[in-house]
Amino acid sequence: MRIFLTGATGFIGSAIVPELLKAGHRVVGMTRSEAGARALEAAGAEVHRGTLEEPESLRRGAEKADAVIHTAFDHDFSRFVENCRKDSRAIEALGEDLKGSDRPLVITSGTGLGNAELGKPATEDVCNMEHPNPRIASEQAGNTLLDAGINVSVVRLPQVHDTVKQGLITPLVAIAREKGVAAYVGEGRNRFPAGHLLDVALLYRLAVERAAPGARYNAVGEEGIETRAIAEALGRGLKLPVVSIAPEKAAEHFGWMAMFAGLDFPASSTWTRRTLGWSPAGPGLIADLDAMKYDA
């Protein structure tokens, strides 16, 4: 297939490109920069110039594609609500050119949207449209396209990691450096799900090849790692003390990250593994945190 990939030079997209190419697909990667174009060409992909802020550039990218994978997202989490709305508009734009065809569109969301009940693992069969997570806007846009007959499926992401980045844990590293302590909220028993970058890239390929309308896949290799264990790993790497922050002090310590730092949102991938034959094999989150070069 000729696959249009947004976010092709990003953390996840740059791992999806070689995964698709080695499976025999052609990749058209979207980028806004010269450096991004050079990276895509070096990887063996075609270059498409575009941005999330230009819906027409998204439609042009989807126009001649056999399938679309949408991973681009503005990761300025201090403007999370606004950026989720921007993602919704991008999904709508991509869907415009896919109307009247069965060409698949794989979009991206978060595992938390599969939480039917707080504290219990999120599952693929749940789509909680009342969820307070602003990322629900992405799945709402996807559902609108699905209702219009467009072949949309969703990959839901946990904390995606390697030894360079780890999702929301990356800003926790910056906060720990700034504050001089590696911290968790309360007892630190709340859990973050995780998935290794290469396992997640493989899942996107399997999802676009399956092209199952309405399917939701959890890219979860580990169901839930306690935030205290995460803080302890950061403490080891940064050589900082590890401390507990009282819930009422979380906003003061974590800033915008406080909305996530105390959440308990484990997630299951049992259905995803069974349906796609997906078997995560990458290192675990704590192993990657312990292997990270904190002085780089």
How would the blueprint of this fold be written?
Elements: E1 2-6, H1 13-22, E2 26-31, H2 34-43, E3 46-49, H3 55-63, E4 67-70, H4 80-96, E5 105-110, H5 136-147, E6 152-157, E7 159-161, H6 169-179, E8 182-185, E9 191-196, H7 197-210, E10 216-218, E11 222-226, H8 227-238, E12 242-245, H9 250-254, H10 258-261, H11 270-276, H12 285-291
Parallel strand pairs: 1-2, 1-4, 2-3, 4-5, 5-6, 6-10, 7-9, 8-12
Antiparallel strand pairs: 9-11
Which terms would index this structure?
296 residues, seven-stranded parallel β-sheet, 40% helix, globular
Task: Write up this protein.
By secondary structure, this protein is α/β, with parallel strands linked by helices. Helices cover 40% and strands 19% of the residues. It contains 12 helices and 12 strands. Strands 3-2-1-4-5-6-10 form a 7-stranded parallel sheet, sandwiched between helices. The protein is globular. The termini are far apart. The model has no long low-confidence stretch (mean pLDDT 95).
Outline:
The chain is an alpha/beta fold and 296 residues long. Helix 1 crosses helix 7, helix 4 runs parallel beside helix 5 and helix 6 crosses helix 8.
